[in-house]
Structures are given as C-alpha cells and as structure tokens.
Amino acid sequence: MEPSELRKTSNREWSGTAAAGGLAYGRCFLFTPKDLVLSDRTINPDQVHEEQQKAASAFRVVELETRKLAQLAGSDENKGDNESVEILAFHREILRDPLLIAEINERIRSDYLPADRAVFTVLRNYIHKLESRGSRMFRERIPDIVDIRSRIIRRVQQKELIVRIPDEAVVVCREISPSEMILFSRKNVSAIVAEKGGLTSHASIIAKSLGIPFVLDVEGITEQVETGALMVVDGYRGKVITGPDQSFIENVKNELSRSRTQLKETEALLREPAATKCGYRVPVRLNIGLEAEVDRSARYGPEGIGLLRTEAYFLEEADEEGDRVIGHNQRRFLERAAELAGKNVLTVRLYDVGGDKMASQAGEELNPALGWRGVRVLLSRPGLLRQQLELII
C-alpha cells in the first residue's frame, strides 16, 4: 500500500523510475568503484600454464563467493526470498560454463594474453553478442556479466573491493550489480539510488525481494550529492529528495510508523487459520528449497510443506559421477523441514536434475531438456534413488 503523497517543500526533488517500492531516509553514501586497470603486457610461452591457473582459480573463488552470497540472500530473517537465490544461480551457471573457461584458456595460449586481459576480452565479446540481440531483456542481463567479469579480474589481480558503508545509509551510484545489491542488504542500507538500470534487471528484482527501496534513472545525481548529505527516497513514486528540512523528515517518520503498524497487523493475520466465511478450512502449506527458508517460514505457522525441493543439495554434494549425494547439509535440511512440518504434510520432491548437471554421465541428445533428466536419471541410477529414499525414511 503506497503512503500518502508527502507534502511538497522547497527541498530539491529528483525524478526517476520506481524500481522497488518503499519509503526511507538516511545519510548519503556515494558509491563510485574505480574502473579496472588491465595488464598491457604479453606473456611468454612458458607463462601460459601459470596464467591459465590464475584464471581457473579466480573462477573457482568467485563461484564460491557467489554461492555464499546466495546463502546470505536466503538467510535474512527479515528480507529476501528465493528470487535472489535463483538470480545468483544464473551467475553460478556462467561461472561454471566449461566453454567460457575453455575460450579464456585458448586466448591465453594463442594470443599470449595475461589472465585478466583474456577474461576481459572473452566476456566483452559475450556482452557484444547480448547487445546485438536487440532484445531489452538480453540487454538488461549485461550488468550481471559486467559484475561477474569485474569480480573475476579483481580476484586474478588479487584485489578486493572493500566498501565501508555505514548502517542505514542511502547508497547513491551510477549503476549497481546484483552481488553489490545483496552485499548492501547485509549492511542494512535504507535505500538505493542509481543513475542507470532497468526495471527487469536482476538488481531491481533483488531489491524488490529484499524490500529495499530502489529508484533508478536519476540522471546526474552522483555529480550533485556528497557522502553524508541527508536524503529521502520514495520508491513508490520514483522520487528522491535531497536536503529535506526537519518538518519533511517528521512527515516521513510518521509515514514509516504507520507502515510498520500495518505490517504488524498483516503478520498477525497470517497466523490466523485460513478459512472462508462459511467455515471451510483451506490448509496453507509452503514450498521450500533451502534451509534458510525454514527459519523465515516458521514465523507464520504453516500447515505443512507442500513441496520440498532437494536439487540445491544434490548439486552441492554430488561427486563427479553423481554417486555420492547424501551429505551433512542435506541431512540437516530434511531434518529441519520435518521439524517444521511436524504432524502435517511434508512432500519431498526427488532429485529433479538433468544430464547437464551430470555431464560426465550424459550422452549426446537431440533435446537434453526433455531427455535424460528427472525420473529417467533416477531409474537409470538406482543408487541415487535408494540413497535419497533412505534419507527421507
């Protein structure tokens, strides 16, 4: 529910695009990461293997960091949901793409490029392909690729972007990546304002799922504000107010107080039995795919779990051949889900994986998406099915 329109004053008001609803105020933190500086040298033939190892190591570390980001996105008890996790899964798929890594290795071997420049060159070509598609959806994936590229190159160069952002700050930037959005949420930022971006970008989707007010397309604001300046962000109407006076701030505080009261009333209603006026009860169950969701779900007293997805733990714990799949994390996940469900329904989905996740065992297929996957995998690999059924029992 949108707040009533705030009383206009002489404060400067910037217009942008409302990307994620919410109302917030706080001190500005101007986020302007430095541009990457790439190596301008060529390497010797005896350095090829060393540079390829640097690239491979950077990919592994960034993929691990991305997995941890997904855990952070799903573990916040007050914010977050599965959308952020799915977006980061997209990042992990890119980082685990064998063709991408092979092309980088080939650039290092054939052109004698150092690892950082090889990564930049290959991913730049990938970005150009997305730009040439002409589709807005493809173009709005580009910030994700740029984010991944920057993180890999910084890791190759053994540099890390350390941002010291105070709690409750309003982050102002030219553009924001999905991973930065999630890291900012761990700093409890009040809101985010960007000069560029798209409504269907992953950063916008994550902002909505994390409940962070986000306004984009605010042209020129990074040149006009300074760190420490007081700001108000209206994510419902796409407005940013700089230099608000005290009466304006009081107005915002009152609006936020009303919103918190409404939220508490809504949460209380969620705990009531779901029933029609005539008394017909409708059981409300949850779909869960990660252990972090169990904690958030418990607050609402669900009447069971309608679908417990197990693929994340298969992908995390399976060995190269896909044989050993029962690990501590998966066991704990099922135990906690069973505790949440109690005496109510708990429906566990068997591993729904395809041959692309077990590449060493998958043969050539005309249509892998409809071929060796799901129940066909389990029936052809009875050891997998037996392990999971034993764990469930």
Name the descriptors:
three-stranded parallel β-sheet; alpha/beta; 46% helix; 14 helices; 12% strand; 393 residues; 11 strands; flat; eight-stranded mixed β-sheet
Topology:
Elements: E1 12-15, E2 17-20, E3 23-31, H1 48-75, H2 82-95, H3 98-111, H4 115-132, H5 136-139, H6 142-156, E4 170-173, H7 178-186, E5 191-194, H8 202-210, E6 214-216, E7 230-234, E8 239-242, H9 246-270, E9 286-288, H10 291-298, E10 304-308, H11 311-317, H12 328-341, E11 345-348, H13 375-380, H14 382-392
Parallel strand pairs: 3-4, 4-5, 5-6, 9-10, 10-11
Antiparallel strand pairs: 1-8, 2-6, 3-7, 7-8
Structure, explained:
The protein is of the alpha/beta class and 393 residues long. The protein contains 14 helices and 11 strands. The strands form 2 sheets. The protein has an 8-stranded mixed β-sheet. Strands 9-10-11 form a 3-stranded parallel β-sheet, with helices on one face. Helix 10 links the parallel strand 9 and strand 10. The longest helix has 28 residues. The protein is flat and about 75 Å long. The model has no long low-confidence stretch (mean pLDDT 81).
Q: In which range does the helix fraction lie? A: 40-55%
Ends apart, CA distance between termini: 45 Å
Based on secondary structure, the structural category is alpha/beta
Total E-strand runs: 11
What's a quick, concise take on this entry?
46% of the residues lie in helices and 12% in strands.
